[in-house]
Amino acid sequence: RFFLKFFLKCNQNCLKNAGNPRDMRRFQVVISLIPSVEGQLMAVSDNMFVHNNSKHGRRAKRLDPTEAAIPCIKAVSPSEGWTSGGSTVIIIGENFFDGLQVVFGTMLVWSELITNHAIRVQTPPRHIPGVVEVTLSFKSKQFCRGAPGRFIYVSLSEPNIDYGFHRLGKLVPRHPGDPEKLPKEIVLKRAADLAEALYSMPRNNQFSLTGHRTPASITHQMNAGFNSYADDYGRSIHNSSVSPSSSMDFSIPPSTTTPSAHYNHSFLQASSSTYLNLYCAKSEDSSF
């Protein structure tokens, strides 16, 4: 913003009505981007009148850019950050102009105009987590008070986040020389490396990791499937009347009634051998 001051010197002898203040010649000074006064003007002065004392002038009247279109906030991206501050946030909206400032709560922050639809700011620090309103300000005039943007301050020491870091600290790999309690930034980095390594491994149809399945659910399904298979298999052995000298077929059935029962083949063979030994031991104790 610039303040321009013009000094106009008029020769009163060139005026037809010189010396008559009741019939004053009026002048205006305008600044525009094109040599025409019909388009949008950058600045317009008040009426200046000329009389016997032609050094008289008026203070320039500048057009307030907020009079044409009121700026408003549509979104804040990202909408949350740490209480330590310093996060880069983009304010998205309409009718932004140079000199427009952003206010987080009651804190006025430095802003950088990207376009008339986007402003880049750095979030100020805040001592407590929570939600603050994001508004706009220009020359002590605030905008967006009725529909402000919102920014959420998050603290690393919140109980839920701290508990999550405690759980991650037990899962991430440890290196020689690590302290007993790893810093949170190291826990995050190692957890991210571990997740990338797991999801980049070659997958098969038996244990494919999907977004809604967890290792606990996979383990539960495996156990449930094996238990149902073991019950059915043991029941079929006890119900059948077979002599010890008869040949018994303990081949693995091609499919089971449980869709999620995908077992390891060698594991099932070992399990069937266990049931065979138990049955033979029971048969020796009983009299035929």
UniProtKB/TrEMBL annotation:
Assigned GO CC terms: nucleus
UniProt entry tagged with the keyword Transport: no
Species per Swiss-Prot/TrEMBL record: Lepeophtheirus salmonis
Gene3D superfamilies: 1.10.287.4280, Immunoglobulins (2.60.40.10), Transcription factor COE1, DNA-binding domain (2.60.40.3180)
UniProt-recorded name of the protein: IPT/TIG domain-containing protein
Matches recorded under InterPro entries: COE_DBD, COE_DBD_sf, COE_HLH, COE_IPT, Ig-like_fold, Ig_E-set, IPT_dom, Transcription_factor_COE
Family as reported in the entry's similarity comment: Belongs to the COE family.
GO MF annotations in UniProt: DNA binding; DNA-binding transcription factor activity; zinc ion binding
Keywords associated with the record: Developmental protein, DNA-binding, Metal-binding, Nucleus, Transcription, Transcription regulation, Zinc, Zinc-finger
Occurrences of domain IPT/TIG (ranges): 70-154
PANTHER family (UniProt xref): TRANSCRIPTION FACTOR COE FAMILY MEMBER (PTHR10747)
A Pfam cross-reference name: TIG
CDD domains: IPT_COE
Entry's localization field: Nucleus
Highest taxon above the source species: Eukaryota
